[in-house]
Amino acid sequence: MGADHIAAASDGVTRERNIEAQSAFASTLVVDVEKAAHPKEAPTDRPHTNVYGSTIDTPTSIAGTDAVYAAKAALLNQAMLDMGMGLYQWFLFINTSVGWFLDSFWLMSFTVIAPSSANEAQFFYTDNKEAYLFISLYVGLTTGATAWPWMSDMLGRKWIFTSTLVLMGMGGLVGAGMPSFTGLCVVGFVVGFAVAGNQVVDAMVLLESVPASHQFLVSMQGAMWGLGQLVAAAVGWAFIAEYTCGTGPDEISTGAALSHQSRADHSGSSSSSSQCHYVSNKGWRYVWWTFGCMTLFLYLCRFAFPLRETPKYLLSKRRDAEATQLVKDIAAYSNRKTWLEESSFARIDSTVDASAPESRRQSRTRSLLSSAGAIGLPVLCLLWAITGLTFTLHKTYISKYLTTKGVDAVSATSVTTGYLYSRYLYVALCAIPGPIVVGLLIEAKGLGRKRTGSIIAVLTGLFMFLATVSRSRDALLAFECILSFLQTATMAVLVTYSVEVFAAPFRGFGLGVVGFCWGVFGLIASIITTFEGAVADGAAVWFCGAIWVSMGGAWMAVPETKGRAAA
């Protein structure tokens, strides 16, 4: 038995040495292939840099992947760097940014329609649980954030990229005609399911198609998140203000009307109170009809752009010929040239693959642990979970806490529509620059992804604490604007880091894992705010601030991805 143990240990050491040898050999091979290409078209001797002049590395040894894929990915990254950022990638950046716009657009739509849809007479529930619509939304978000990325590893990025938009658009059109609140909640689930998949897959599509020098664009496209909120609030304001009943401070809600009617019936009075019926409450339906049409229009606009599968996905599926042809097509579309040939990949196959067949297969779970690290992966999941939990909790309970300090609450039933939607617009405007700032910081010398994330986390926690000193609605609005900026900045750096740290063969699986953490804890927050109306002494507010300050330290436990071409 001792001899068997020694033999097994010896085999393990030998395997590790073989893999190290393969990586070294693969590195040499990639250089040889580049030199054997067309030197006039591929000046590989010149190092590539980011916007700040820092050198970009194209590693030939990638944790969690086999040596064959690592060598091919390094070759592909070098070819794309040499080709540069062309017209195709810029158009793709616009397309994926529209995806972020629509995700935020639809999430904001629930905030817009919830008060008036729940107040409608035939939709009315005892205790006015409009939050059931948000619970349905988060169930859909959790399912979509888990399922779509996993499916993208099997079915490809392009199919997911287009189908999620159709679901959102059709969901809006169908939901606007729903005759019951239960039906609207079902549609809310479908829309949430589509939204969660669209955002993550958009990030994957962009990352896997741009040169490493422009990976920061994954963060910057998050600026469209704030723009989506802005447009949704503006469109919603126009319809809700004109075609809604029973939600303003001077209007009678359905609940009050029914209560008055019940008292009149018991007293034998013939007086009747007006209720908010369908005919006078079409505003929220107009909102979703408009949003659905806008979404389907933008979906059709995507056909004007020759969207292709991503080269790294094709490479991860051993479809080398298709990946090579795609790079050539991208170069031709952008009026560029590329030295990449299928024979370059074939040479890697004939050498590295033959030397270590046992290193080609690895479970996806082990791949995740290898890429993000045994500590880094749990920390990344924690960061996503805290993001899903805290922003919803803090937004709800800071308002409840401040009412005990004399600050009047702001809601659809306590303020005018104009005042409420002007606040929505201010908050949305502040969300736009967050991802742009992050896109610049993550490439800066001395910062990178993890330090930028750490700084934003600490600032988020501090401003969650400071919001408690507000003593007026305007002061609270100022803190809401700052936290809106920090929330989109947080999402931008988290999404960018997550898509970079996982390699293409298991990128969807990894994003599905962290997406599940985000969705589940967002659902928990929604359930808490629905059924637990009061938390003593603002405990939820203090918890949210404290946990974000501590996340500043957690960010430092993940491996840095700055300056490395994503595989």
Notes on the protein architecture:
This protein is mainly alpha-helical and 567 residues long. The protein folds into 2 domains: 2-38 and 62-84 and 307-356, no CATH class; 87-266 and 274-304 and 369-557, Growth Hormone, Chain: A (Up-down Bundle). Helix content is 70%, strand content 0%. It has 21 helices and no strands. Helix 4 (131-155) runs parallel beside helix 6 (181-207) and helix 15 runs antiparallel to helix 21 (539-554). It starts with a helix and ends in a 13-residue tail after the last helix.
How do the strands and helices of this protein lay out in sequence?
Elements: H1 2-36, H2 67-83, H3 87-119, H4 131-155, H5 157-175, H6 181-207, H7 217-220, H8 223-242, H9 254-267, H10 283-301, H11 311-316, H12 320-333, H13 342-355, H14 364-372, H15 376-403, H16 417-431, H17 433-441, H18 448-466, H19 473-501, H20 507-531, H21 539-554
Main location: membrane
Protein name: Sugar transporter
Subcellular location: Membrane
